[in-house]
Amino acid sequence: SIRRHEHRLFDAARIQPGMKVLDVGCGVGGPARECVRYTGAHVTGLNNNDYQIQRAGIYADKYQQRDHSAFVKGDFMNMPFEDNSFDAVYAIEATCHAPVLKDVYSQMFRVVKPGGYFAIYEWCLTDKYDDSNEEHRRLALAIEHGDGIAKLFSTRVALQAARDAGFEGVTAQDLAHDTAVGNETPWYKDLDVGFVSFGGLQAFARSRVGRVFTSNAVKILEKVGIAPAGTVKVQDFLVDAADGLVDGGKLEIFTPMYLIVGRKPLN
């Protein structure tokens, strides 16, 4: 399902064999590796995290993709590339960390060649989000805090930002609620495992009982000095983030897969 999700984005960006493509906020390079396999393009990943860039390079060697990929450390608000450097540009759940969406989209517009496509999966608040609703605000804050996001923007803001950046023919679709693409299973299902689960270690760890067990274990490890100071706080806000994602998904006030596609004008 992850590959299908990525392939839809690569198709939307019109990526073809031999193209030079930019992955904005590439992490450790998972989507970039899949893009190379699926499209035959050369992918450059951009990330501001030294460790993730290092891991991406190690994986590129492991999967024999070094000749078809490169990973660059840099700020996606000020990309270290010349104008019109890439045939296509995409981002997967990364640009939500930008303080201003228009600014990061404008950087993507700058580095893609005229006629090239831009495609992203954006984390957004939907039209069902009500800022006057205290519960809605609590869930949005939990997602922002736990996932290191300065501010979640609405789908309307994201769509307009793409247009303001200069892209033409901009289209958008919330794939979180589109059963036609084969996602009848809710995207948050694996985070919503209930009180207790015996479906494996990861499922147990996500359950209510598993969280209590993990929390107490982390407290002990931090107290005796095995885990660094602050680990308990990190574990607590990650749990809050998971709950925010699940409840935000159930209320349909949040989507992690708002697909935006646009094209840089030829002129």
What are the defining features of this structure?
267 residues, alpha/beta, 7 strands, globular, Delta(24)-sterol C-methyltransferase, EC 2.1.1.41, methyltransferase, transferase
Write structural notes for this entry.
A 7-stranded mixed beta sheet has the order 3-2-1-4-5-7-6, sandwiched between helices. The model has no long low-confidence stretch (mean pLDDT 92). It has 267 residues and is an alpha/beta fold. It starts with a helix and ends with a strand. 41% of the residues lie in helices and 20% in strands. The chain contains 9 helices and 7 strands; from the N terminus they run H-E-H-E-H-E-E-H-E-H-H-E-H-H-H-E. The chain is globular, with a radius of gyration of 19 Å. This is Delta(24)-sterol C-methyltransferase. It is an enzyme of class 2 (transferase). Keywords: Methyltransferase, Transferase. Its EC number is 2.1.1.41.
Write a concise synopsis of the structure shown:
The chain has helices at 2-12, 30-39, 50-62, 101-111, 134-146, 155-164, 201-206, 208-223, 231-250, and strands spanning 20-24, 42-47, 69-73, 86-92, 112-125, 168-174, 254-263. The chain is an alpha/beta fold.
